[in-house]
Amino acid sequence: MTREQKTKIIDQIVELLQQYPNVYLVDISDLNAADTTLLRRECYNQGIRLIVVKNTLLEKAFEKVENDYSELYEVLHHHTALMLSEVANAPARLIKKFRKDHPKPILKAAYVQESVYIGDDQLNTLASLKSREEMIADLVLLLKSPMQTVIGQLQSGGDILARLVKALSEREG
């Protein structure tokens, strides 16, 4: 591979790293062609980019972006594939689901929500992270609940007050 080709690949990886905030490094070696195709299809269906990269080119791409990926360098050995996603927990959930029937992918590391997770033992933690949309929905529910309580109390208070006024007017009459 020529220097120009390597530079072009590095630039493409940098562009992807800038586009996707969540980066998973996984080992998909030893998956046969059919399983790899199935994994790629599942990734595509869930909006996850799956790219097999050379470790040296990935490290050079990491060095060119703003985010500090230096903690991930220690896992850049053997085979590495990138899983890139807008949703923080989507790759972890996909990996867990896929591993019910397949031995891989194995999580090497992840850079999610500006935090670094090293090792396959972090998979459950990453899968349980809430996505941005899920956190917004939880926040809306939290804000909505007290308002509903206040409105309910005001409405029931108004009914009580109306009945009291009616009872007083009937008593006087």
Strand-residue proportion? 15-25%
What is the string of SSEs from the N terminus onward? HEHEHEHEEHH
User: Total helix count?
Assistant: 6
Residue-averaged pLDDT, rounded? 87
Low-pLDDT stretches = none
Q: Which CATH architecture of the largest domain?
A: 2-Layer Sandwich
The tally of domains stands at: 2
Overall, the morphology is elongated
Q: What is the makeup of the main sheet?
A: 5 strands, antiparallel
Distance between the termini: 101 Å
Q: How are strands sequenced across the largest beta sheet?
A: 2-3-1-4-5
Number of strands: 5
The portion of residues assigned to helices is: 55-70%
Q: Supply the helix-strand structural class.
A: alpha+beta
CATH class of the largest domain: Alpha Beta
CATH topology-level name of the largest domain: Alpha-Beta Plaits
Q: Mind telling me the C-alpha Rg?
A: 26 Å
General description of the model:
- The chain has 173 residues and is α+β, with helices and mostly antiparallel strands.
- The protein has two domains: 3-129, 2-Layer Sandwich (Alpha-Beta Plaits), CATH 3.30.70; 130-173.
- 55% of the residues lie in helices and 16% in strands.
- The chain has six helices and five strands, in the order αβαβαβαββαα.
- The protein has helices at residues 3-19, 33-45, 55-64, 90-98, 123-128, 132-172, and strands spanning 22-27, 49-53, 80-85, 106-112, 115-118.
- It has a five-stranded antiparallel beta sheet with strand order 2-3-1-4-5.
- A hairpin with a 2-residue loop joins strand 4 (106-112) and strand 5.
- The longest helix is centred in the C-terminal third of the chain and has 41 residues, at 132-172.
- The termini are far apart.
